[in-house]
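Q: Protein A?
A:
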Amino acid sequence: QVQLVESGGGLVKAGDSLRLSCTASGRAFNTYAMGWFRQAPGKEREFVAAVSGSGGSTRYVDSVKGRFTISRDNAKSTVYLQIDNLKPEDTAEFYCAAGLDKGRYYDGNYYWPLTDPPADFTYWGQGTQVTVTA
């Protein structure tokens, strides 16, 4: 069982940056791929970014590449989402999620499962609200 608690959301202006954090409780944090999702008002929840259990590989939805950076600190059982140059359309509830890392290494390269999102995220946090004003 994994419990996730997000923090770091808030009310910001366009162009600002935020770093969201998600701290996990439970064992073997490094065996879980971690992800961030967001749900804007009136829209379905969408995958944003994922990081492998080791932290060595990341995946992003195309719309956030270059502005969002996911990372993790396994010693602190924490995953982060750095969001730069925030835009009003980034306004959403952001959720952290965990799923067993089922990626594979081959020839020193990590390969994500061929699924979308790239892990079976089974544990979810309560969410943290990000509101961006123009």
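Q: Protein B?
A:
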Amino acid sequence: QVQLVENGGGLVQAGDSLRLSCTNSEGTLSSYAMAWFRRAPREERKDLKFIASISRSGGSTYYADSVKGRFTISRDNAKNTVYLQMKSLKPEDTAVYYCAAWATGDDLLRDYYSDFGVWAYWGQGTQVTVSS
């Protein structure tokens, strides 16, 4: 079992920046590809939207078109932490943000990174609210 914990959410204004972090107490995140998904207000869990993912080594990253150029996913395996740096935030970025883990290699990640069904472990989420 992988227990993921997200931190860093909050209330910000449009145009602001925010950095989310995800870690786990087992100290094993280096064994997993990691991703961020989000669920907008009034949406159900099945409506989770892919935001970004990163390979185990950090050498490969993938982004949703809606956040490309504004969000950056990174990881520090020595600190057992994955980050989502968000810049130029918009009201439509308001959502609960979840980190997810998948014990997979680069090939499968490349083909299925945006499919939330392949991500085995999930955190409880952190709320990000962007006011206009």
